[in-house]
Amino acid sequence: MLTTHTAAELAAKLHSKEVSAREVTQAFLDRIEAHDGEYGAFLTVDADRALAQADAAQELLDAGTATSMTGIPVAVKDNISTNGMRTTCASKILENYVPPFDATVVEQMNAVGAVTIGKTNLDEFAMGTTNENSAFKPVRNPWDTDRVPGGSSGGSAVAVSAELAAVSLGSDTGGSIRFPASLCGLVGFKPTYGRVSRYGLIAFGSSLDQIGPFGRSVEDVAMTSEMISGYDAMDSTSLVDAKISTKGLKDGSLKGLKVGLPTQLFTDTIDSGVREVLELAIDNLKREGVEFKEVDLPSINYGVTTYYLIAPAEASSNLARFDGVRFGPRLESDGHIESFMKTRGELFGPEVKLRIMVGTYALSAGYYDAYYHRAQQVRGLMASEFEKAYQEFDVLVSPASPSVAFPLGGIKDQMALKLLDFCTIPANMGGFPSISIPCGLSEDLPVGMLLTGPVMSDERLLQISYAFEQAFGRDYRRPPIL
Amino acid sequence: MSISLDEVRHVAKLARLELSEAEMMTFQGQLNALLGHFEDIQGLNVEGLPAKPHAVALKNVLADDIARVGLTREAALKNSAETKAGLFIVPTIIEE
Fold first, then answer.
1. Residues of A labelled as active-site residues
2. Contact (CB<8Å) A357/B38
3. For A185, left (φ over 0), alpha (ψ -120 to 50), or beta?
């Protein structure tokens, strides 16, 4: 079946003319039609549009101007703007919003003939860790459909894990790519902040948000990263040498590699099953010549707190634009302020409202210095601790999630849900590139290993991840249900 | 540090969110739980540490002053709840 192949394998088949772009896209559309009812990964699928893009891709393939991503079906998180195609953020306030422009990453996809196979479900406005905060439907994990896929990019993760798309795009503000990648047995990558344009990504926490790919292999993730990265004048935080190259991806060696293990991420906050899988994987790599050493990074313990001040503060400002004037429905009330309040009060979901409240409080008079400013100081402390560690280590390694996938509705406590991003948050604070790769199973469910490197080390990080992946083997990666 | 129901009401107004009494109570509990965690960083000595507002700081990002095609008026207005004569219609602000 075509849909079982990685993007790299599909690219080879497309380039050798063994299959057509239309056949590839049709195969994924058929699987979505037959199976997405079980998973809830997609919010919008436009088959005609996808097939038209596939035909355009075929022209590039026939003309010999194709890249490795030409004709590859890509699922796109529904907070990334697609011209003429509904973009909802899984929120009632944008339920019927049709962007009049493409996000830069979508333009880049179109330029090389990658196919937008559909728009994927998420926690409303990317706020959540389980994908249960979608205003429309939860997403289910193909490894066990009674369990969560992780969030907030749960739909993008499941699209790839359930083989409904070859690769996908998500966004990561505190772990929203790497956490679901870990729970679904995928590779999920958050590039260095500024290497992928945020233009057209509906903003949540602007200083933390970064678009990145999910794939079934490091190679697929590297190929997709190459496509979507690059300097963009439309994003004032875009870096000049932003393009991520796949050159040398397979040339890395494990021998003599220096890896730091942050002690704060191997405590009993992490489930023992997850720790055991990590330890086995680490032993495996030690035999291949990788050198591991513990490193103390005490500020990690303040990561979640700092995150829940900075991200909601930025969100409360970013989401002020949703007032029923320029986008979405408007609910009438007595006065104009009352109309804004009614529209927002009724159409935002509970988690979004909570975060807007937290952010508004943290930024309000009298609390700004005690909360928001102090959080930014702690953010600086975290980044400098990591930067110091990078003088000694090539990468830092930890679990990507404190547990494997858990049942839907299994965690009710708000704070417990927020603590799940404990391992992934530091990379967003420092803008560091960070990737989760599958490294084994615990209770028959995937465990992700998180690798984080210094700013702009994306190519090196992908190269190391590729070498780790070779050492781990890929045979355990398909959900048994498939 | 804890937040009263009146403060929740005030913050909701600042945030332009109409909340039911039940929601106010829920958010009061959740805000207080979060505020409890915020105490974690209150004890840290951050004296003199610079604030880090950006992931990767850039200086003086300027765009070349080149005219380019923007959205058409029709496209910009397309998603609005109410438009008239090529303009967004906002809720009435000044009474007649």
1. 77, 152, 176
2. no
3. left
Res A463: pLDDT: 98
Q: Is the pLDDT of residue B96 over 70?
A: no
Tokens 């929601």, residue located: B23
Write down the mean pLDDT value for chain A: 96
CA B86 to chain centre: 28
Residues 11-50 (B) with a CB less than 8 A from some CB of A: 11-19, 23, 26-27, 30-31, 33-34, 37-38, 40-42, 44, 46, 49-50
Residue with tokens 């700013």: A455
Query: Mean pLDDT throughout A12-41?
Result: 98
List the one residue out of A435, A480, A427 whose CA is nearest residue A460.
Answer: A435
Among chain B residues, the shortest Cα distance to A378 is held by: B46
Q: What mean pLDDT is predicted for residues B63-77?
A: 91
Distance CA B71, CA B85 (A): 17
Residue A476's pLDDT band, with cuts at 50, 70 and 90, is low
The answer to whether the beta carbons of residues A119 and A376 sit under 8 Å apart is: no
Type of residue at B11: V
pLDDT of residue A482: 87
Closest residue by Cα to residue A263 from A225, A296, A221: A296
In this structure, the dihedral spanned by the alpha carbons of residues A324, A327, A329 and A335, taken in order and rounded to 10 degrees, is 10
Helices then strands, counting H and E runs in chain A, come out as 15, 11
3-state secondary structure of A286: helix
C-alpha A26: how far from chain center: 25
What part of A 393-452 touches B (C-beta under 8 Å)?
414-415, 428-431
Look up the CATH number of the domain holding residue A113: 3.90.1300.10
Are A336 and B12 inside 8 Å of each other by CB?
no
Residue A431 · residue A452 · CB < 8 Å: no
- Gap between the Cα atoms of A339 and A330, Å rounded: 7
Q: Is B62 on the interface with A (CB under 8 A)?
A: no
Q: Which residue segment(s) compose the domain that A303 sits in? A: 1-482
Q: A331-378, pLDDT tens digit by residue?
A: 988 888 999 999 999 999 999 999 999 999 999 988 888 899 999 999
The strands making up A445-452's β-sheet, listed across from edge to edge, are A42-44, A115-120, A73-77, A167-172, A210-215, A187-190, A434-442, A445-452, A395-399, A258-262, A291-295
CB contact under 8 A, A98 and B82: no
Look at chain A and report how many structural domains it folds into: 1
- Is residue A92 classed exposed, middle or buried when 0-12, 13-18 and 19+ CB atoms within 10 A define those classes? middle
Contact (CB<8Å) B17/A357: yes
- What ipTM was estimated for this complex? 0.94
